[in-house]
């Protein structure tokens, strides 16, 4: 390659450093990955600040408002958690699929089907009206997971059997899921013509912290619900499966080199279907817990795009289930308090920027940038 | 005989062309002449430098040294487009066609005419005329995906003719064709030379070279071993010798080993390749305990398919594979692994290892679900680490830590990872495909020693290689495969016979005259 250097006659001053980009020849240090994730968030926030400033507002005021109204008191922390719960479960759903390089973009649809499954328990009804609360918790969660899993199984099976691209099939099935729910909202379970079902009876609701207010007044008014337990238990189990279990090893091997996995005697088709089922079940659980913990009825617009935000969260957490919890809380805060700053606009912008910088940061994971002083020659 | 024709009859003249790739000399001072109206075969083993030489002529590569003249005028092509303008067109082994577009659209692609509106009917007519002229039967209106491989090849030829090529380079054109299509191709080639076109025919198949070419040039390891021989003056055996060469074979220390029972018994095995063409055509062979059996053959004659079928990675459509009296035909790969079948794959990075995973994760690939590395549903990380460290020490794998990703390892070390994993499973039968390809001398010796140690410990080894030297020095017997059939079996290391079998003469016919 020709050297595009300044001609001899040009002024003598030269940039005193040389920037060299080369492929990494050894494993990147362990701290690099979280640092890159954090940097992506910080840069996204800085650009967000710039946009706010250009728009003529005070970015500092905006951000401190977000911080205050998402993490400033127990009340709002609890509200942030409510937003974070479905994100955690959906983020986990994406993480397991992405570990195998299976691009499940259908968490949104699986979420809707999970909501449908949980509603069915109450509205069909599967359980009698006055069944005890613990039965409702288990059965609604189970139905939610089953329907979510079904919605994951279909594209998984199509991919394994007919090599149908899962990105397209999962994405398209999101629309089917939304319309499927609409059929029941507008028709079958509509409450006297309104576009929603009847309110679930109290014993079908997931317990909330405020339910404990009688014994511990401190919890009064806190809306964080039992879904948090689902999410944390799921995260810990998934972490164990992915990092300790034989199945986790198989997923890792297939994700890195499917041909090597096949050569080692691991069935790729079987694992595609299994991973899609588990991924779907997790997203379905998110839908079920949202319906029984927050909305308490089946209606439209139950998700401000949780399924898609889950994709960003999975990447931000570098597909680590425990880190998904932290990333979800961050996004929960953004969604909750961001809406106070501006209904969409900036908060969505920041989410998008985080995703872009995360993908771009991969460059630093693969390459090494060395800055050296130029030697006069 | 009119060997000395005037130079204006020479369409192409290449003089002392040298082409280097990092670490290899692909062509070293090669001379090549092409006369008007001839089919000139370029013969040589895989990696001999045939395609490289022609890629230089077609403007894809630039030679480091040497000169090329076309029709007596010196040229220096910077791109295939310039070569085409000088009348030189190449039909590659892998077609470069757009499947969803029609024949005419593909032919017009990249041309200046038509400029804006496609005017397809008019150009369909033109394409049909050119096709008619050379007897290339293809419907100009058909979409590429609807065509057979043979028809697609005709489109590629047509593309070059339409651009006015009068020199046509065919890179292994018969490799993708069925026998009937080969005859048709040969007819086309003859009708083109009758009309004054000149053809370079790259091949490693002797019988085809004998049938179609007027003259033949043989390359071996980047050098010319014979230049411009008249095909009718040479015999197949001569060509085989020129192609394979005779070299001093250094013998590896081999101890006497008691040969035991048959471990691998393959009968009438048939299998398809990835394109669905039959690439194993009734292969029968056996390997016994304490034996290394070589499988010689030019690449692409079914060796990979055989290796894959033996371990269960490829479906056998006919025949049987017996290992230690167990029928493992079309059984899951895992079952084969449990029965002590092991494979050293040809592609170390794409099949043999998972590049971004650690050395540990790579060495436990086949026993992660066995005790002691498996503990219930878990992978016992501690045991895995101990196991990996043990292999790293025993096999002298040079790597900073066992947690290093294997993509950072050198070829030799990567192969050691694979060998360590495969050998430590104590296989009863091992298939090794090109185990030393691309390694340096020291690493080659190490790999060969490991294979011999397998033989001494009583395993049955099938060694698939294109390196005759290696096969001769390691193997107790050698089978030769050609177009998915076993041509014969040799146990005295007769390199002449191997050479002839590699180019398609069955053992029983060798020595009988009139084979040509």
- Low-confidence spans of chain B: pLDDT under 50, at least 5 residues? 1-7
Number of strands of chain B: 22
Note the overall shape of chain A: globular
In whole angstroms, the N-to-C terminal distance of chain B is 21 Å
Q: Specify the helix fraction band of chain B.
A: 25-40%
* CATH class designation of the largest domain in chain B: Alpha Beta
Under CATH, the topology of the largest domain in chain B can be stated as: Rossmann fold
Compressed to H and E, one letter per element, the order of chain A equals: EHHHHHHHHHHHHHE
What is the name of the CATH superfamily of the largest domain in chain B?
P-loop containing nucleotide triphosphate hydrolases
Question: What's the architecture of the largest domain in chain B in CATH terms?
Answer: 3-Layer(aba) Sandwich
Mean pLDDT, all residues of chain B: 87
Q: Could you say which structural class the secondary elements and strand pairing of chain B correspond to?
A: alpha/beta
Give the largest chain-chain interface (CB within 8 Å).
A-B, 22 and 35 residues
What fraction, in percent, of the residue positions of chain A are helical? 55-70%
Outline type of chain B: globular
**Number of helical elements of chain B:** 17
* Order of strands in the sheet with most strands of chain B: 6-7-8-3-9-10
Strand-residue proportion of chain A: under 5%
Oligomer: heterodimer
**Continuous helix count of chain A:** 13
Tally the structural domains of chain B: 3
């Amino acid at each position: 390659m020709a050297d595009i250097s300044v001609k001899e006659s040009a002024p003598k001053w030269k940039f005193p450093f040389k920037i060299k980009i080369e492929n990494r020849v050894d494993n990147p240090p362990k701290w690099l990955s979280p640092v890159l994730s954090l940097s992506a968030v910080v840069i996204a926030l800085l650009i967000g600040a710039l946009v706010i400033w250009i728009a003529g507002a005070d970015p500092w005021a905006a951000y401190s408002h977000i911080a205050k109204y998402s993490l400033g008191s127990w009340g709002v922390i609890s509200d942030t958690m409510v937003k974070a719960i479905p994100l955690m479960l959906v983020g986990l759903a994406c993480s397991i699929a992405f570990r195998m390089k299976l691009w499940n973009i259908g968490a949104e649809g699986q979420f809707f089907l999970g909501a449908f499954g949980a509603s069915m328990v109450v509205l069909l009804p599967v359980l009698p009206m006055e069944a005890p609360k613990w039965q409702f918790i288990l059965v609604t969660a189970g139905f939610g997971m089953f329907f979510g899993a079904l919605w994951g199984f279909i594209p998984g099976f199509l991919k394994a059997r007919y090599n149908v691209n899962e990105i397209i099939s999962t994405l398209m099935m999101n629309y089917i899921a939304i319309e499927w729910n609409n059929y029941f909202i507008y028709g079958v379970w509509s409450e006297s013509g309104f576009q929603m079902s009847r309110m679930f009876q109290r014993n079908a609701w997931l317990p909330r912290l405020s339910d404990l207010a009688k014994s511990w007044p401190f919890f009064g008014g806190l809306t964080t619900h039992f879904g948090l337990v689902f999410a944390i238990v799921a995260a810990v189990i998934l972490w164990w499966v992915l990092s300790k279990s034989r199945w986790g090893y198989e997923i890792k091997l297939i994700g890195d080199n499917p041909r090597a996995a096949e050569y080692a005697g691991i069935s790729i088709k079987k694992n595609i279907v299994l991973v899609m089922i588990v991924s779907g079940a997790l997203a379905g659980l998110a839908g079920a817990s949202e319906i029984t913990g927050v909305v308490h009825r089946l209606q439209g617009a139950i998700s401000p795009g949780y399924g898609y935000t889950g994709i960003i969260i999975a990447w931000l957490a570098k597909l680590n289930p425990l880190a998904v919890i932290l990333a979800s809380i961050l996004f929960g805060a953004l969604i909750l308090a961001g809406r106070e700053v501006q209904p969409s606009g900036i908060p969505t912008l920041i989410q998008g920027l985080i995703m872009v910088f995360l993908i771009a940061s991969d460059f630093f994971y693969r390459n090494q940038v060395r800055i050296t002083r130029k030697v006069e020659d | 005989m009119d060997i000395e024709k005037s130079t204006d009859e020479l369409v192409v003249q290449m003089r002392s062309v040298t082409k280097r790739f990092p670490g290899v000399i692909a062509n070293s001072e090669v001379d090549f002449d092409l006369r008007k109206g001839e089919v000139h075969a370029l013969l040589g083993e895989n990696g001999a430098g045939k395609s490289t030489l022609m890629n230089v002529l077609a403007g894809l590569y630039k030679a480091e040294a040497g000169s090329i003249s076309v029709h007596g005028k010196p040229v220096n092509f910077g791109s295939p487009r310039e070569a085409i303008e000088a009348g030189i067109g190449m039909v590659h082994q892998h077609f470069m066609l757009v499947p969803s577009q029609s024949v005419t659209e593909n032919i017009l692609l990249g041309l200046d005419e038509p400029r804006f509106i496609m005017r397809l009917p008019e150009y369909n007519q033109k394409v049909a005329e050119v096709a008619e002229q050379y007897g290339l039967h293809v419907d100009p209106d058909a979409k590429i995906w609807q065509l057979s491989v043979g028809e697609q090849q005709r489109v590629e030829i047509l593309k070059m003719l339409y651009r006015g090529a009068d020199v046509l380079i065919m890179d292994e054109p018969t490799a993708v064709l069925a026998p009937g299509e080969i005859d048709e191709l040969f007819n086309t080639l003859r009708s083109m030379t009758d009309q004054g076109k000149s053809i370079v025919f790259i091949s490693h198949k002797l019988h085809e070279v004998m049938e179609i070419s007027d003259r033949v040039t043989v390359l071996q390891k980047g050098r010319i071993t014979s230049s411009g021989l008249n095909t009718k003056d040479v015999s197949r055996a001569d060509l085989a010798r020129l192609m394979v060469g005779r070299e001093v074979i250094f013998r590896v220390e081999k101890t006497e080993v008691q040969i035991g029972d048959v471990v691998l018994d393959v009968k009438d095995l048939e299998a398809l390749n990835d394109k669905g063409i039959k690439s194993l055509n009734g292969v029968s062979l056996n390997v016994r305990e304490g034996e290394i059996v070589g499988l010689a053959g030019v690449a692409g004659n079914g060796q990979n398919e055989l290796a894959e079928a033996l371990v269960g990675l490829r479906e056998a459509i006919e025949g049987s594979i017996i290992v230690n009296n167990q029928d493992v035909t079309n059984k899951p790969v895992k079952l084969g692994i449990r029965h002590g079948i092991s494979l050293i794959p040809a592609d170390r990075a794409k099949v043999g290892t998972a590049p971004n995973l650690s050395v540990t994760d790579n060495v436990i690939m086949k026993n992660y679900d066995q005790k002691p590395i498996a503990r219930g549903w878990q992978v016992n990380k501690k045991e895995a680490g101990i196991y990996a460290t043990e292999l790293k020490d025993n096999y002298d794998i040079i790597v900073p830590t066992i947690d290093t990703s294997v993509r950072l390892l050198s070829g030799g070390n990567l192969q050691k990872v694979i060998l360590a994993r495969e050998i430590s499973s104590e296989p009863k039968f091992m298939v090794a495909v090109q185990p030393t390809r691309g390694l340096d001398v020291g690493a080659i010796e190490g790999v060969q020693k490991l294979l011999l140690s397998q033989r001494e410990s009583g395993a049955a080894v099938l060694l698939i290689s294109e390196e005759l030297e290696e096969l001769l020095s390691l193997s107790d017997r050698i089978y030769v495969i050609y177009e998915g059939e076993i041509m014969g079996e040799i146990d005295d290391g007769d390199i002449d016979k191997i050479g002839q079998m590699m180019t398609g003469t069955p053992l029983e016919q060798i020595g009988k005259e009139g084979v040509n």
